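Per your request, structure below.
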């Protein structure tokens, strides 16, 4: 059981900065920030969950069944992540590529302390065993001097970024994927490449704050689990459940931004009319419709929005919204299991695409193109897509960010490569900032 109270900070933005700084003392942190993006499916402006009371850590084998048992037994809020490699428990697939990060395949925890931000108010929910700490914690959070939040805790060495796949090799691999498409093995597949750094020491909170400041996405995430970190500027929702309604919002289609207003508007309009980008998006919408139909009530799957272009700080994105209705008998975890991994990061047909991806990519994706989110006690959930993200294992000093693009019959390898560089720009910038 939880004790609930409400707090109205003098300045909600300062309180957000302070509470994230305050949270760093804990081994388990999930911070989700919408950066004031409002859509019809927003539940909270930001959420912070810290300090595990119970936790589930497992590899892919029977991962969803273990998660179902864990969620059913806690009957509480749980926060955590699903790595892309859970595909191996959903289908007869494997992940044998190099893994420099070594994150567990699935991790969820039941937080002792939970903060839910909405408007100018913070709803605070503490487990009864720690509810006597609410006042002291609020005093500690409010007494943090904001300038200290932004100061560097130490001088870190410049991060030396390396490419896992070089340009010529990237072209070869994309051409191999195009051969699969022309042969009819797949229609589309998301092909990803890694940028990485070894023997790197960073201040994760500082890097996250920089990344969030230049991207300001609707699904920003700071995740810490012991010495494993995710610093994410994700613009994409994977899936959400609100009462009996399920919402999925795949992104397919990217264009750069321009500081010139007229040119920026032209780039946006060009993206909205681009046949290749639209066909990419529509193929994934069909895949998402099919995935949602596995748990949906008959005839309830709808495309509410098709190929609408939204503008973010770094890029324009083409987003569609697909919804369904589910009966109360459907377990929330089963909705995720039957749609995972998300279509926007795999391809169509999904299983064939995942096999080809595994053959051509050089790394185990891990948390990249997986998901972070939460389940509520009443069966709702909300999960993002882990893209535009830096992953860091502080124990082995390995840092990684990956980017990818959808390869279709109309793909030009050079344009795909350039799109990857656009997507990688924000991550590279924050790591090279001094």
């Amino acid at each position: 059981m939880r004790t609930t109270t409400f707090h109205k900070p003098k300045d909600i933005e300062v309180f957000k900065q302070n509470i994230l700084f305050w949270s760093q003392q804990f081994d388990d942190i999930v911070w989700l920030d919408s950066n004031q993006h409002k859509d019809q499916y927003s539940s909270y402006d930001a959420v912070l969950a810290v300090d595990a009371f119970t936790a589930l850590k497992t590899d892919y084998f029977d991962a969803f069944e273990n998660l179902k048992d864990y969620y059913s037994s806690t009957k509480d809020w749980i926060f955590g992540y699903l790595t892309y490699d859970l595909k191996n428990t959903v289908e007869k697939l494997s992940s044998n590529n190099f893994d420099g990060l070594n994150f567990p395949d699935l991790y969820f925890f039941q937080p002792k302390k939970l903060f839910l931000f909405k408007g100018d108010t913070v709803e605070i929910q503490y487990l009864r065993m720690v509810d006597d700490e609410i006042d002291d914690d609020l005093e500690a959070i409010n007494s943090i001097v904001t300038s200290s939040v932004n100061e560097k805790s130490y001088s870190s060495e410049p991060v030396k970024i390396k490419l896992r796949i070089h340009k010529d090799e990237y072209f070869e691999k994309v051409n191999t994927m195009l051969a699969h498409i022309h042969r009819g093995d797949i229609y589309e597949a998301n092909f990803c490449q890694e940028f990485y750094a070894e023997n790197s020491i960073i201040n994760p909170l500082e890097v996250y704050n920089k990344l969030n400041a230049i991207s300001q996405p609707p699904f920003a995430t700071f995740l810490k689990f012991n010495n494993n970190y995710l610093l994410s500027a994700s613009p994409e929702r994977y899936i959400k459940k609100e009462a009996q309604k399920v919402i999925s919002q795949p992104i397919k289609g990217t264009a750069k931004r321009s500081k010139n207003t007229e040119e920026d508007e032209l780039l946006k309009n060009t993206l909205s009319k681009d046949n290749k980008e639209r066909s990419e998006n529509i193929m994934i919408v069909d895949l998402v419709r099919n995935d949602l139909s596995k748990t949906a009530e008959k005839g309830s799957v709808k495309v509410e929005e098709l190929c609408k272009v939204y503008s973010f700080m770094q890029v324009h994105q083409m987003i569609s919204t697909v919804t369904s209705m589910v009966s109360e008998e459907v377990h929330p975890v089963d909705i995720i299991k039957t749609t995972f991994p998300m279509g926007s990061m795999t391809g169509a047909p999904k299983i064939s695409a995942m096999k080809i991806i595994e053959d051509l990519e050089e790394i185990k994706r891990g948390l990249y193109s997986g998901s972070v989110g939460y389940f509520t006690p009443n069966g709702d959930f909300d999960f993002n897509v882990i893209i535009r993200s830096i992953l860091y294992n502080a124990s082995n000093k390995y840092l990684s960010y990956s980017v990818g693009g959808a390869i279709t019959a109309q793909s030009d390898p050079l344009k795909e490569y350039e799109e990857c560089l656009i997507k990688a720009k924000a991550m590279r910038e924050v790591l090279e900032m001094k």
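Residues 238 and 342 are 7 Å apart (CA to CA).

Regards,
D.
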